[in-house]
Specification:
elongated, two-stranded antiparallel sheet, 168 residues, Arc Repressor Mutant, subunit A, 8% strand
């Protein structure tokens, strides 16, 4: 990025206006420094703040990608811990910060995105459904899908066996 000083100052003023940045005065006082206050202002845990930071910087990602990239911001023990940290910002009643996007064709996992600006917010506005938030809900959804697939496959297996017997 190439920004002029005026653009940076205007951006910082907007962030300060929203309560997302503050000026920091140092002992030397030679240069004005700023600090972000987004985690405190948005009531985010360190884990949630790390994930939101990565989603803002890199766009929609899977839980595995987030876990691998978050190591220096916040160490996650496993994928379940990442998924737990993704749920609360998505379930905020007044102002959700994230959304689970549907799994893309050819991909194994769904991706999560932030709702602070850009394409993810547009996708959420279009009604992109989030996957079930809890492990139990996900398991129930998968078990239901497996049952429906079995019901569809069983008649096909019978037809295939009947077809095979014709050629024996």
């Amino acid at each position: 990025m190439e920004l002029a000083e005026g653009e940076v100052v205007r951006g910082l003023d907007r962030l300060r206006g929203h309560g997302l940045a503050v000026e920091r005065h140092t002992v030397e006082g030679r240069v004005v420094k700023y600090a972000h206050t987004a985690k405190r202002r948005l009531a985010l845990t360190p884990a949630e703040g790390a994930l939101l930071c990565l989603l803002l910087l890199r766009g929609p990602q899977t839980a595995g990608e987030l876990r691998g990239r978050a190591a220096r911001l916040h160490p996650f023990a496993d994928l379940a811990e990442v998924e737990v940290a993704l749920v609360r910002p998505q379930e905020r009643a007044a102002f959700p910060l994230g959304v689970g996007l549907e799994r893309l064709p050819g991909r194994r996992e769904h991706r999560d995105a932030h709702l602070l600006s850009g394409a993810a917010a547009a996708a959420a506005a279009l009604g992109v459904a989030a996957p079930p938030a809890t492990v139990e809900a996900r398991r129930a959804a998968v078990e239901g899908e497996v049952a429906s697939l079995r019901a569809a496959v069983e008649p096909l297996q019978g037809e295939l066996e009947a077809f095979r017997t014709q050629f024996r």
